[in-house]
Amino acid sequence: MFHQPMTFEHALDLRSELGTDATVINGGTDVVVAMNHGAIKPTTFIDVSRIKALRGIEKQNGHLIMGAGVTFADLGKMHFRALREASLSVGGPAIRNMGTIGGNIATASPAGDGCVALLAMNAEVQLSSKARGDRWMPLVDYFIDYRKTALADDELIKAVRVHNNPRSRWYKIGKRGAVNISLVCCAISQNENNKTELAFGCVGPIPKVAPKASALLTGETLTPELIDDVANLVTHEVAPIDDQRGTATYRRAMCSTLTKRLLTQLMEDAPKGDADA
Amino acid sequence: MIQQVTTTESDQTLDAPIAPADHLVGKSCRRVDGQEKVTGAALYGADLFPNSAELFASVVRSEHAHANIVSIDATQALEVAGILGVYTHADVGGTNIHGLIRRDHPALASKRVRYFGDSIAVVVAKTERAAKLGRDKVAVTYEPLPVIATMEQAIAEGACKLYPEGNVMGDKRIRKGDVERALADSHVVVSDTFFTQTVDHAFLDIEAGTGHWDGQVLTLYVAGQWVHEERRLIALALGLPVEQIRIIQPVTGGAFGGREDISIQIYLGLAALKHQGKTIALRYTRSESMRARHKRHALKIESTFGANADGMLTAAKIVVYSDEGAYASTGIAVMRKAASHATGPYCVPNVEVDVYGVHTNNNPTGAMRGFGACQMAIAYEGMMDRVARALDMDRETFRRKNLIQSGDTVTTGQRIDPVSVGLCLTKAIQKFKDQPYPGSDHLPAHIKRGWGMSAICFGLGYGDGFPDCSRARVELSDSGIATVYTGGVEVGQGLLNAMMQIAGEELGLPFESMRIVAADTELTDESGSSSATRQTYFTGNAVRMAASELREQVLDIAGIKLKVHPHEITLQHGWAYETSNSNNRVRMEKICTEGLTRGYSLKATALFKPRTIVEIPNTGQSPRAFITYLFGAHVSQVLVNIETGEVKVERHIAAHDVGKAVNPQSVEGQIVGGVAQGLGMALMEEVTYRDGRIMNPGLTDYIIPTIKDLPPVEAIIVEHDDPGGPFGAHGVGEPPLIGAVPAILSAIYDATGKAPCELPMSPERTWRLINEVCENDPLSKVF
After folding, report:
1. CA-based angle B496:B497:B502, to the nearest 5?
2. Is the entire prediction scored with pTM above 0.90?
3. pLDDT tens digits, residue range B44-56?
4. Cα(B566)–Cα(B354) distance, rounded to whole angstroms?
5. Is A103 on the interface with B (CB under 8 A)?
6. Residues B513 and B406 reside in one and the same domain
């Protein structure tokens, strides 16, 4: 059965009624691929991609709120540098036109480029259920374990929000120029209070933040020495594994390399009032 | 004022001048198959399904890389709704064996499986879904055997033997001069070991086709590379006479050697024989395609080269181990090609080459674009860079001192004339230096730019005395249309156009008057395989010879019509005219009508069968191992991020001597495609196995280049007439890939100062090379 609700309320009804019997699909760039590989064999779908209300991006109280149906193509036009570049590094044009930020968060892959960029930006995710209404939670708390999240069986992802105007940087190492799965990716953002967050992809079971490194940076002015310390510290905060795409040794080293490179960029591109060029 | 002329015709258009000589050879005539391909009208194997399939087949494959089969139980499978039959080796009427060159691969395994994709049974059902459900219900009981995952394990003492005669499949050698002495006397001696990876062909058009048995003829629509040989192999395996099998090649999306071995043909044939009157369809998924198909041989190449103080090469000692996987296929020929190309286009007076083929429980290995010559170019060009550096000599100067010249001999003792490798290198480097890359010279400290070069040679055709011939038939109809018949298959490379253009050139016909029928065993004669870069040369020659015979008929008839001697007639753009008086002319269709009434056949066939000479087994020497040699040279420029190991090819120049470009646009396409595939091999493509199991059977993790990875490829077509080729042409299929890989590696060496020796140079491998990190290196090749 393929349900295609046109309103979010209807989608919540279906979700509450069908629970885990139905697979939620929002672009299908993960779900359909998994089906083709035979990894999942769903028979019931709730396709939320036709819900217009999920496609909006709006500014509200110093936040930018993005609906769960905002596509990577949409995000690729945004001025938040890390999120924009991360989004433009996802797949190719066809995948970016279909794939959504909500889908990326729902899939919760450790290689989810969008999730890593959002984590670094201290994003919060809005989860909704018919029974309990909406709740906001920090994205960092949403990821629990490998593809395991805080999303309840009757909940849908409604939106994600970030603070306006962080300065941010992004880098992804992959094996080719497009349709490129991360070997390691790193996002860094810094808000106007000099609070800096780091996040990494493919270095553990979930998209990973580095709280100790962030703590070391908080309130400090970036210097080469500080950057070296942080770059060293992050290698202890990540837990990459060996897999056929790359080794833990390389990934750990790259966390340090990318931290250093991106922080150096932030340091060298001194803020000039507005956020990102 | 219109001049009154005496002509044999009253056609009004006679007053118009004859179109200028339209030389089809050398012209980028629009691809005859182009429009249907770009509009989607072309029917590839999988496109035949919706229209024709009545039943569907699926293949049961081994779940073990190495095991004895204890039993095959189809009881549960036969209970699946829609299942019509499950067929095993016991149902196969013939030898049940296939294999190109060496036949050792059971179509359906009976007692033993030797790789993870080995096929065991064919399931036939009313729907594709039922066929797959049934496939999953066939219960095979195995007795696992030790898995030989690496060549090292294969040759270890006491290793489990894949075959009674052991795991070493065979060896090929070259002996010339006194290598030990020459190395001892050398000014520098440099050694290194290269590891090339297992590569998949990754053609986009996954194996798919249909089969039908009407009680008399088994008709298969399946893409291969040599329909007549496939017919022979299928006939033997299924126990049918060849004349009861017809193979028709559907439109084909790439081959690269990946269709040289039998794929789905025997399964389809078996299913069709069991279900007379029904059209059976079978198609792989990408992962099944990768799991089933043979691969490019992974080679370990131990190279030692010596040179004297003047920079002249003195000796080369090369030992190669080739992972043959589970079945031999074309392995023995690949080993031979590797041996004969071990020192490339260089004069090396003393040479010792030993190539060993070693069986493992990895996928069978076989033909892939470059066929052993590709891997060896990585090693010999890598060594040229290393020796040049050891001599503190410029890389280009060192190469030029040692490149063969016209009249020199290659390692196998064959004298080559003409040789154009130096010319190709000059043209490539000239272009590189004269037209600098527009990119910024100001690079951040962690980005290094470098450039590299390669010079390569390639022996065309099967070589080594292996029978190699092409037939062609050309016919003229009474409407002046010429049709070329060839057994050669179009796999995307442009064979159809090339053959039409060659025949049209010979007959003085415009391209619009040309037709072609190809790769149908019923309608066409055997033209050998579309492989070994041989079709332009071999079938091209046969087509030209047949067209030439037809031309004689045409001139004869035109002579009668124009009342002049045939020698005084020119054929041009569909006309025959008196050379000294173009107003005395007649159209081709009139000639044809006239000819037919006068009893001319207007048909001609030709066989082109040049000879190569088998090498002397112990020395590998042969005065004519290959019918002709092709040359090329590349220059590549890369950016390397020394912190992350990422490599970006910024610019790539490829110069290839094609003799004569029959269709320059197709030639350019082959060059660009070869560079793309070479870039993939250099930087990203790698089949990884764990205990014989492919870990990346899909394009998610088997990484091939995208358009974003490919720089603008600057193709330089060098035309140095090949005296033996049709209109001087020889071919271009494989050399562009062969040249691309070492040029990119050479550029990485230049940028980083570190010499790559393991492929592919993924970001991690490049980073490990730069930083000399060995710790925890599962990427490192285990011999």
Report:
1. 105
2. yes
3. 999 998 878 999 9
4. 57
5. no
6. no
